[in-house]
DNA sequence: TGGCTATCACACCA
DNA sequence: ATGGTGTGATAGCC
């Protein structure tokens, strides 16, 4: 069974007049598709709250073992500006660095990637160790904006650039060995809106024991998706190809990498 | 040791 | 019929 659900409309009865809306008290509409054998259950989104310093309308996205928060972090004008700045500043991997080995065969990854972060940090992707470049001004600005709204600090960002709808990323989880398991991953989107799909690890494959429908959402220009633990443990995510998308998208995933003393 | 990663083939749908 | 999309098979490396 599949249903499209629009969640997060303004609560009936909320006066909606307060400037200092606590997190979750006022919602923007985004299209979230939550599918479930028994249909959709509406949760009280106000039940979840944390003290954030900036009042932003948050959208809670929850399923079994999945816990995300979605918000528009930047206005269109600011997001346009940031996108342009990143197009000038970010230097992407090329050549051998942009290749990946899958089932013995070597491919160029279907997107461009770059890693930035605190000095000396490294990140392993598909068995290849990348060292982080020093932060650029725009990446620092966005990082700080994320920190202000989430209260979380980050020492690393993975930049993915999808030149159009043909560029994509296959289903995966982020490497848990290197990541601080208690720190959420903050995913900032700039440019073309793209579909984003979560699938539960027990609902993959031909004969999976559980029937858990995927959670699908669209990541808008200037948005931020916070993936809270334990989401990354149970849910794979992907950015599927979309032939109709003709414009580029830049995605920034801010993380906290453990200083590699232990692996 | 097992889980990862992209592509291809093919089924399904409108 | 056609094109876009979703799912499974693939089988080597660390």
UniProtKB/TrEMBL annotation:
Ranges for domain Fe2OG dioxygenase come to 153-258
Matching entries from PROSITE patterns are given as: FE2OG_OXY
**Cofactor(s) for this UniProt protein:** Fe(2+)
Q: Which InterPro entries match?
A: AlkB-like, AlkB-like_sf, ALKBH2, Oxoglu/Fe-dep_dioxygenase_dom
Keyword entries, A-Z: Dioxygenase, DNA damage, DNA repair, Iron, Magnesium, Metal-binding, Nucleus, Oxidoreductase
The entry's localization annotation reads:
Nucleus, Nucleolus; Nucleus, Nucleoplasm
The organism's superkingdom is given as Eukaryota
Q: Which GO terms describe its biological process?
A: DNA alkylation repair
Q: What is this protein called?
A: DNA oxidative demethylase ALKBH2
- What high-level taxonomic lineage is stated for the organism? Eukaryota, Metazoa, Chordata, Craniata, Vertebrata
Name of the gene encoding the protein in the UniProt record: ALKBH2
């Amino acid at each position: 069974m599949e249903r499209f659900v629009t969640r997060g409309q303004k609560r009936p009865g909320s006066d909606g007049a307060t400037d200092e809306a606590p997190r979750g008290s006022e919602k923007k509409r985004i299209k979230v598709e939550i599918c479930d054998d028994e249909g959709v259950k509406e949760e009280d989104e106000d039940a979840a709250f944390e003290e954030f310093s900036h009042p932003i309308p948050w959208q809670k996205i929850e399923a079994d073992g999945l816990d995300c928060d979605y918000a528009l972090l930047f206005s269109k004008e600011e997001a346009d500006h940031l996108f342009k700045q990143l197009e000038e500043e970010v230097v992407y991997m090329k050549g051998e660095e942009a290749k990946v080995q899958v089932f013995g065969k070597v491919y160029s990854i279907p997107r461009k990637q770059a890693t930035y972060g605190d000095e000396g940090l490294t990140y392993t992707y598909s068995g290849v160790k990348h060292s982080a470049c020093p932060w650029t001004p725009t990446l620092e600005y966005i990082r700080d904006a994320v920190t202000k709204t989430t209260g979380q600090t980050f020492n690393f960002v993975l930049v993915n650039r999808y030149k159009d709808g043909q560029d994509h990323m296959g289903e995966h989880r982020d490497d848990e060995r290197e990541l601080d398991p208690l720190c959420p991953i903050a995913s900032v989107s700039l440019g073309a809106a793209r579909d984003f799909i979560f699938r539960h690890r027990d609902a993959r494959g031909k004969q999976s024991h559980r029937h858990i429908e995927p959670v699908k959402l669209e990541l808008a220009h200037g948005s931020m998706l916070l993936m809270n633990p334990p989401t990354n443990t149970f849910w794979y995510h992907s950015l599927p190809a979309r032939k109709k998308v003709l414009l580029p998208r830049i995605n920034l995933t801010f993380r906290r990498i453990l200083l590699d003393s232990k692996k």
